[in-house]
Structure formats: structure tokens, C-alpha cells
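Standup notes
- DV: blocked on the single-chain target, sequence here:
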Amino acid sequence: MKLSDVSVIIVNFNGEDVLPRAVASVLTLPDRPGELIVVDNGSTDGSLGFLHTVTDPLLKVVTLGENHGVAGGRNRGVIQAGGSVLAFLDSDGEATPSWLGESLAVLSAHPEAGAVAPLVLMEDGSVINGAGSFLDASGHGRDRLWGEPLDSHGADLALWHEQPVDYPMGCGMVIRRRGLDSLWPLDEALAKWHDDTEIGLRIRRLGYEVLFSRTAAVLHHPGHSDPKNPGERQLLAEMARLRLLWKYYPGSTAMWASVHYAFFAVTGSRRRLGNWRDLAFMARHLAASSSDLRRMRRRWRRGSDQRH
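- DV (later): unblocked, structure below
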């Protein structure tokens, strides 16, 4: 594998304050990828104005007329990508010189690896955002060592290098295409959350692994695209989690989690009247999506997977 085989994909929505840094970090890499694709999700700020000032031929801009969400933007970037390796950077992320080369080294050394989960560092690189990610039995994702100082975990990171994790964090994940064509398209019903967990689940059900690399690193400046209202954030995150459960987990687990969510929404309504509205919205969404969820569940059910 060569760096020219890599297509870097950035999905952007109203990121004029963070996008220039992400784009520059890729275009100024000492060893550059084959192409940089920025998918603009119908931004209404100055994002497109900035992109139109970039004359570097490495950059390809895909302009969407509306916001298709993170997963929808990734899907459209993959369609446009010509590389045999897909590398994803968030619009509030930042490439480092080690990111692509070290990720390719893992993929080349491990044919069983479908994706690389890089070491994701926050802000100036002194604090860990995630060192590989894991799912629990209820569909909650956990970014290993989140918030921990980097210089306190050198031995742990060395021990975990090139070891399997459940899924790669979306900012920085690097995915091979060969053998994984059926991974795409992702479920784009929601604006964000759990697209990376879905990628990890699908990769593993296709018979590949996701390997963590401590030497491939990206920086992340998180929070740009999160809803400012905590209630809205929680609702969307829980909706994405329940969709994940109904698609990939045992039916009993998905049912129990749905009942659990409803119970706490009702009991918490004395403190937050909006819980009733959220519960009704969640119920309508899951009911309207039931046929799509069943279809994806049948396609990806465990035991009927395609193997490499």
C-alpha cells in the first residue's frame, strides 16, 4: 500500500471556524495522500467560501444541497473516492505526519485488519481523546483512556498496539476497501452519532478486525457540531443507540433498552416536562423506521455474514 492509494474524506457542516485547520493539516503533510475530498453538507456559513479559495489540486469538493448527516456525508464521500484506502478526518480534527503512513503499515502487516483505530489526542496532544473504542452490552460506546494525560500511559499504549478493539473513533479511522465493499452505505437516518460503532460492528461481522495503533495519531478539537441544548444532545444520542441495538443486538436486549429508556423518561418527567415530548418523538421515530431496521437486521444478523 502507498500513500497515493489513500483518499482522505472530511465531512463538514457549518465548520468555517475549524475546517481551514483540518484541510491545511492534510495539504501540508510531508507525505501526502492521493486525494482530499471535502463533503459539504449544505453549509450556510462561510465554509464553501473558504473551500473555493483553496487552489491545491489535491482537494476535491463535493457540495450537497442539504445536510445528510455525518453518515450520509461519509457515504457520498466514499462514492467519490478513488483510493483503495479510506481515511476519515472530522472537520474539527487535525492530521499529524504519522497518521496515514503508520495506519498503512498496520493494514499492510495485518491482512485480517479491516480498519485502523488511531490514537486520538485532544487539542494540543497532551490529553487522550481515545485509544481505541469499545461497546458494552447495552450499546454504549467507550473511548478508552478518554481525558487521561498522554504521558501517564506510555506502557499501556505500547501493550495495546496493533491489538483488536470494537470500533474506530470516527475522527481518524482508516479503512481498507478490498473485501469491505458491502460495508457501505451507512445508515444515514440520523444527523450524527454511532456511525463509527456501526462501522466497527459491520467490519467484524464481515470477518475482519479493527486494530488500534499507538503510532498513528490525529488531533481532535471536539464539540464543534454538537447540539448546544443538552436535552437535544441526549435525545439524539439515545435515539442513535437504540437504532444500533435494534439493528445489531439480540431482540431481547433492544426491547429491554427501549423499555428502560421509556421508564426513565417517564419517571424523570417530574423534573423535566420535555421528557414526555422526547419519549413520544422517540416512539414515533422507531415505529416509522421499523421496516428499515428489520431489513438491516436481517442483512447483518450474526451467523449469516460474508467472510473474507
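- Follow-up: The mean pLDDT is 92.
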